[in-house]
Amino acid sequence: MSRRSGILEFAVLGLLREAPMHGYELRKRLNTSLGVFRAFSYGTLYPCLKTLVTSGWLIEEPGSAPEEALAASLAGRRAKIVYRLTAAGKEHFEELLSHTGPDAWEDEHFAARFAFFGQTEREVRMRVLEGRRSRLEERLEKMRASLARTRERLDDYTLELQRHGMESVEREVRWLNELIESERAGRDQRSGSDAPAQHDNDSGETGGLPRHGGSTRPDPSDDTAK
Fold first, then answer.
1. N or C: which end of the chain has fewer CB within 10 A?
2. What was the pLDDT predicted at 62?
3. What would the CATH number be for the domain defined by 3-98?
4. Distance of CA 32 to the CA centre of its chain
């Protein structure tokens, strides 16, 4: 399985955990809600859905009344099929959510993981955010070292492009610092509260994300931050 197909399967399972959908709805949500999937076709989505059905993680259900399905068949149109997450599919998705290895910190995978942080346990969110920050700090250090070595050989435009890339990474590191501090503050607030504990992935509680009057958060899938 390629990395990108694995990310797509993760995103499809996550969206269907929220509610059953047919292919058109899924594609629309993937395009509008998850920046990493801004451009992809049904030719990519339906093989993914077929694989998930074969694996037992999804089931197909008729999405129309029987008479509407018959009319679509007679007209040569494809009848709508609704995809629903199975119990095994939900369990598999929760296993994926708990994963915090290095691939969860990479550009495309991190964007998909972040989109489902509302369903992710707080400690897992923290590990993913800290791993992403560490990865970007390493990248930033390499970019600075490379720029220092080659500065004298670069023309003004190439130099400006290099600076722009560094500023994009620096901006995401600052954003991650804010998120990490907010997660820690939310955890500390909960630990000092007398309220009964709840499971983050059931309650949808996000630990108090930083709020901005005008959002300056970088898009984790922004190519300039890669």
1. N
2. 85
3. 1.10.10.10
4. 12
The helix or strand, by DSSP H or E, that contains position 147, with its residue range, turns out to be helix 122-150
Residue 222 clears pLDDT 60, i.e. is over it: no
Tokens of 95: 């296993």
* Counts for the chain of helices (H) and strands (E), in that order: 9, 3
Going from N- to C-terminal start, the domains of the chain cover 3-98, 109-113+120-192+201-225
- CA dist 18 and 90 (Å) reads 10
pLDDT category, 162, cuts 50, 70, 90?
very high
User: Containing H/E element for 170?
Assistant: helix 156-191
Q: How confident is the model at residue 6 (pLDDT cuts 50, 70, 90)?
A: confident
Q: What is d(CA 167, CA 161) in angstroms, rounded to the nearest whole number?
A: 10
E strands of 128-206, at which residues?
none
In DSSP notation, 92-116 reads HHHHHHH--SGGGGSHHHHHHHHHT
Q: How far is CA 92 from CA 57, 82, 97, 137, in A?
A: 8, 20, 9, 32
Compute CA 224 distance to the chain's CA centroid, rounded to the nearest angstrom: 18
CB-based contacts of 170, cutoff 8 Å, min separation 6: 140
Mean per-residue pLDDT of the chain: 80
**Model pLDDT for residues 40-76, shown as the tens digit of each residue:** 666 788 899 999 999 999 999 986 555 555 555 555 5
